[in-house]
What does this fold into?
Amino acid sequence: MSAVPLAVLVAVLAVPIAVAVLGWTVFARPGAAAVASRDNLLRGIAAPLDAGAPRTGPSVLARLAGGLTPAGTVARLNRLAATAGRPADWPVAKLIAAKLLLAAIAGALGLLVVSGGPSLLTIFMTVAVTVVAYFLPELLLYSRGKERQDAIALELADTLDQMTIAVEAGLGFESAMARAGTNGKGPLAEELVRTLQDIAVGQPRREAYLALAERTGVTDLRRFIRAVVQADAYGVSIADVLRTQAQEMRLKRRQRAEEKAMQIPVKVIFPLILCILPTLFIVLLGPAVMDIVATFSG
It folds into this structure.
């Protein structure tokens, strides 16, 4: 058997197996106990777990994928998952398996194409598509994390206003945080609830606050947490800190909106030059050009 039919046979056998396993990786859902535990931690609702629910553990595929993946990649995926809020449908083990399977599918299809007509271009395209497929889950997770960070930065000013009002009304800082987390519905409210749960289980307040800043990765929230930690260390009034930080966050939000508004004319230039102006020139100059051509040709 020659090398080319053997490569084709391997690719044909690898593709359906990889597609089947990829379908399990993408569409598999966590068990009932895992879902209930996660909701319990994020929302703070004391829901009893079903004692008869099946317990899920790491599968053979997840352990194999974890063994084939470098420790640095696993750590990076953990950081990206924490920034994205650790979505239940995208656990780290599933992401690792998806990376390997997507790369395997792309490599198998590329091998099939290269075996049909090998050339420098097809080999380069195969390598490029395989590399992109390997990093695709990380890119999707990074995009989701950026969206979550933008949502947290957008909600921060209003949340600080709520906490300032609650503290000035006589509540403590943690009580004000609990009220803001209970009344809110976005990712910032979820992170505040999780921080309060960390404190409730015995973690020191300073470490819980710093973990909140590290977990979200939002610059404005990290600056606010540092101000709160310093106020707690030096005995500064927390109401003054909240009021000052809320004013600063509102000012920064206004500045970001003005910056985006200033960027609109620059962003419109390229579609205007590439799409609108050529069409306008054709409409305006087309008849004149046709008349000139007809005059000279006659």
Summary: DSSP finds eleven helices and no strands in the chain. The radius of gyration is 28 Å. Confidence is low (pLDDT under 50) at residues 43-58.
